[in-house]
Amino acid sequence: MRGYIRRYYKIGLTLLVLLGITAYVATNLQIETIHRQAQKLATNSPGAEKVNPGPAELPDESTFQTVSENDRFRLKLDAKTAHFLVEDKKDGRIWRSYPDPAQWANEKVGSLWRTHLRSPIMLQFADLTTGKIQPRETNLLEERGTIRNLQMVAGGFRLTFDIPSKEFSIPVEVKLEKDSVVTRILDSDLQEGNLSLMWIRLYPFFGAERSEGQQGYMFIPDGSGALIQYDPGSINGNRVYQEPVYGHDFSFQLTSLPIPGINPTPQATNNLRHKIFAPVFGAKNENRAFLAVLEEGAEYAEIVASPAGAFSSYNWVTSQWNYRLKFRQVTNRERNLSFETYDKNERFRSDRTARYFLLDRSASDYSGMAQRFRSYLMDVYKLTKVKPKSSHLPMDIIVVGGDSAKGLLWDRYIKATSTSEAMRLLQRLYGLGIDNMTVRYWGWQKGGFGETGGLTKVDSRLGGDKGMKDFIAFAHSLDIPVYMRLDYTRNTTGAGGFFSRIHGLRSKGGNPIEKFASLPFINRIVNEDIPYLQSLGMDGVELHGIGEYLSSDYNSRSGTSRDESTRLQQSIIEKLRETQGKVIGYRPSFFAAPLVDGVASLEDDYSKDLFTATGVPFLQIALHGLIPYTAKPSNERDEYQKQFLHDLEFGSNPSYLFTGSDSSNLKYMQHLSFFNPSYKDWEQAAVQEYLKFSEALGDVQDQFIVNHRILSSEVRETTYENGKRIVVNYGVTSYSYNGMSVPPKNYLVVRGGGKP
User: Fold this and answer.
1) Which of 124, 418, 531, 564 could join 560 via S-S bond, C-beta 3.0 to 4.6 A?
2) What single-letter DSSP state applies at residue 79?
3) Domains in the chain: how many in total?
4) pLDDT per residue over 233-268, tens digit each?
């Protein structure tokens, strides 16, 4: 019997070895075939042959060869064009790096844009050696470029796009990694000649679709997130979405800057759109969708989304990787004469990586995109679910200490809330039933809210250091944590010996930018301030500026590139967490958001472009259950009931901004502008709202949002892990929901069992 077992074991082992050899040989023969095709491409450019309009313009998918696969997906390459496709082995769905060929016959665009659509790479360049700079767009096919050095690497392929006519060599890499395909521009071997690169778009038409017969949309990271629906009847001209990731770079800003503190949600004066907080975009077509996350080089990227009818009949969304930006060069001592130009000698250095997550059929919508981004954040930053302190939702109370008022000869101080008044404020709210609060103290330093850049002691008119320590101790007796606002971004006080010509942030043209401080200087001041902050006994800090803004710095003594600025800001946040306990980020971008313990005033709106259909809570779906967040203070809402419903829909924690003083004198504040912040006028409304929020959202603080739906133009539904659903009705008539009625301008809470 044992002899039979040994014999069959040997036979089975032999078969396995033969199968392995066969697979190895087949794979290597396939790779050899691709290599041989690559050798041909070294002399035969993809744009050299004239191709008649029609199907032959796009790659022949029957010639694609598998270069990598895993248990779920298969990556195939067309060595002739360098285009690729990814096939879902489970259900046959396909994502292409080029426009859907089934719709190509109806494409009417000609000339340059026709080759753009077919090309694996687009770029903009300029001759910076001439007096008149005129950037031009082109692509690999238009320039009759070649593909060389095609080779297989673990998970995919690597090659170089050569454009001899412009003296550019652009090495790229494409890999299949689990449920994503990753494209990368390799910076170390990227070459320029006499001409200079402005930007590159790599595989810009990945997932591009026409609108006819399609149910789909593009997702853009506009504010909290927005959708551009596929609309067969749209005529967009050249109206496209194009914005820089993490906002405009101050050093390349061509107009004046926003001043932190004057406007709670500052926007650059030359830009009406909301900032991009997360480096993401996506698209959905029927049951096929993807989410792209920009990784290396995200700081230098812009997101471009073009609806059908703009440049072609395809809807497409992509990343534009910038290598140079225009800046203003001042030419006289008075700084009132200047011209706009580019720097030929400096190119933004970094690999450029885009990761395209290929979503399951059941997750092919914006909710699925946001949930995949949440998983990505958990994997990369090791985030875990929050642990609620109470079944009641925490209410954030912003206490304003003081600010200054503009005077004829000098500014005068306006006291808003002393530490003793802050104690009475908390005691009153707690006694009325708000038993779970978090306090954020603004404008506590000497001189008030506008005095920033480094610490001065607690203003004596508020109670000084002793008064603040007593207040914090009192708050702790009620189990209320206290966070004190810090803003090091602009140095208005000269703290730390700040002198803008030496320590200030400088533009590319060499000019100091307002009173913004260089990050290495800020880092030094933070180190010096840590012992004092610890002495007050607070629970943490609310950080403004750091994590909120991102800029290059051309200070010759302490300059930083935009990607270096990212890393330095992250290190400052981590340092404050280590020494102060916790950090709440004020409107942080996503290079900082996963590092903080809470987010204040998380963006919850979008820019309402004509081609944008609706806003969605992408950021909120990604963060809920991981990092607590608030929207703008309830008593600063423009439309109280509508924005109350909006906060419920988006799962925000409630917040109020209060002062202990009456409001009459506060209208003269020069850095803050309030409607009516006196807590005495709002305490009853705050209690009622606290109870409503707690009943609706108290038991889902640690629950992920698993779905969000637009039920009608006026009705939205948010669903949590435990089955609870929040249905909000912004309309003026009742809405019927599963046999239940949602009153106008009201909401319905549906528990896991389906009952209200």
Assistant:
1) 564
2) T
3) 2
4) 777 666 899 999 999 999 998 665 554 443 433 333
